[in-house]
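Hi there,

I know you've been waiting on this one. I reran it after we fixed the sequence typo, so this is the corrected version. Both the input and the resulting structure follow.
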Amino acid sequence: MFPPVSTDEWMAKINVDLKGADFQKKLVWRTNEGFNVQPLYRLEDLEGIPALDSLPGEFPYLRGTRCNNDWLIRQAVQGETPESMNRHALHILEKGVESLGICLCKAEPADLKTILNGVDLKKVEVNVACCPGKAVEVAEELVALVKAAGAEDDFKGSIEFNPFKRLLKHGLEFPKDIKETALALYETVKNVKNLRCFCVDSKMLNNCGAYITQELGYALAWGAEWMTIMTEAGLTACEVANRIRFNMGISSNYFMELAKFRAARKLWAEIVKAYDPASLECCKMNVHAVTSVFNMTIYDAHVNLLRSMTETMSAALAGVDSIETLPFDITYKRPDEFSERIARNQQILLRDESHLNKVIDPAGGSYYIENLTASIADVAWKLFNEVEDKGGFLALLKKGEVQAKVNESGVKRHVDVARRKEILLGTNQYPNFNEKALDKIETCGCSCGCKNEEATDGAVDYLNFDRAASQFEQLRLDTERSGKRPKVFMLTIGNLAMRLARAQFSANFFGCAGYEIIDNIGFNTVQEGIDAAMAQNADVVVLCSSDDEYAQFAPEAFKTLDGKALFVVAGAPACMDELKAQGIENFIHVKVNVLDTLTEFNAKLLK
């Protein structure tokens, strides 16, 4: 047996290892979500955290709404006609899918009969997205099919009635007949007890770069808006809550996303309870989780598989009701058989081979995860209350405040990507220098084929769905379209360790724009290096050495090059000002904005 070690003893050991460095600055992580994360947590850190003694299936559902962890595998139904959509639906059901996502943006409500022909509505969950104006017709058609199958008690599914989307996505005016339409929709579906019809689609916020607490806070406010609208229209709290489905995104922040879903269930249960429901059962949150599009990339697209795999795992361990893992190529083409199969198998691997469905809330009791859950809940709850104090979610949407706040976060994240504070492997760090993407791009935007509406004049701001990689991809595509491929030559000289490290840094830096990289082991003299660069017809010469040697090598190399190519110094040496005084303008290092710098180089090199 090891003797117990106190927190003070741990801290004393940490401070020794820090050798005088500040603990807060060195080891405490300040998240973008607005709270600190400590480098270690102990049992005493659980003190004061509520609901830790609750069990899965017990209010406030922190540990899950069910006594199992069996989630449904969802995939979108593709096809140009109802008949082709039906063939695709039956095909993916044979391959392990249990929940269908059907977009009727290009089809009519009556087409549902054809699309669902042969689908067992007692066993397969069906989720239909449609224009808000057709929601009641879609509901009537779906309910008729369910009744014809005798599946009223067994059916599970949803109609994604989302009138808020007009304001969020397009800046268009909010429908005036929302209450009447929603009531008609409820009356249509009320006899199919597990058919949900009031949509909270916070994955839209996730795909615009919203931070985790932002998505959660606004999702809760969105759900509360539905509760308020429909209870004021005469429905009971349970009648409304049992018809709400949350469609939430999953970012790649593995542990925090896991904690987000746990916090979401707890907070939503408290919100519904405030409406005085007849039963606490209706305080259970129904959550469908979708992997993020915001961090997907066109270049090195197979890295998307790594991102979506960890995202799927976060949601699975968190105990959501269903998950859609998006195909890795969805950002640039309609997914094909291969990418769809891989997306399905990602979930099958986690659930049926890794057995993540065998343990309920495996993170429960973890000092770290429980503290993350409490911190996320605290920040999201403050945002929720702020929204409520300002008149509620819809009021803020009409003012454009929600859209502006989310877009502000998206802009910050784009800046972080541009400065490599947020890494997108294969795009802003460690790119595949020789990859081409121009020819593989077939389509942009929604994979279901629906057309985006344009915002009307005088409408409020709407969400910006630019992916995190979009600006880097535009930069690199510009290089491809130009028909030129600038050559970047590494003039490596001097200190062996420093020249190799800076050459690698510089290769990754310029590779992000799709330039040809010419690396070298090293040169004995500056003249030898410049001669080799000219022999290669280099467009850019990057001097890679140590800070101490730049005072000598940089002026010599700059003078010898004599404007035959752009000259760059890799690093930020103490003598930078002296070098600038001699006419050397270009320095690349970890503090520069990679995107802005490469945009300037493109302007010079692609003329």
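Quick highlight: The chain has two domains: 72-404, 484-605.

Best,
R. S.
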